[in-house]
Predict the structure.
Amino acid sequence: PAAVSGITGIIKMIHALDEGLLPGTLHVDAPTPHVDWDSGAVRVLTETTPWPAVDRPRRAGVSSFGVSGTNVHLILEQAPGDGDSGGDGRRDDGRDDNR
């Protein structure tokens, strides 16, 4: 079960990188009032949010913490040529992105 959870997190972020949408955090209705959220640039996403394209690839961190003490942390980066290029919907690998 712990491995499946970790793989699910990776798949979820791969889709987020590809689609340009940040998924909302599960099981959170509102951020904790014990943190001063206005003083920093970090926030809890309570709903799916657009992830704008900028002049660099999108990057995301994924962490998975297993009950047995096995922890995994990785950084994913958007594939070159992927994303909001405004192209014809064709990917570099020839697959059609117009679903």
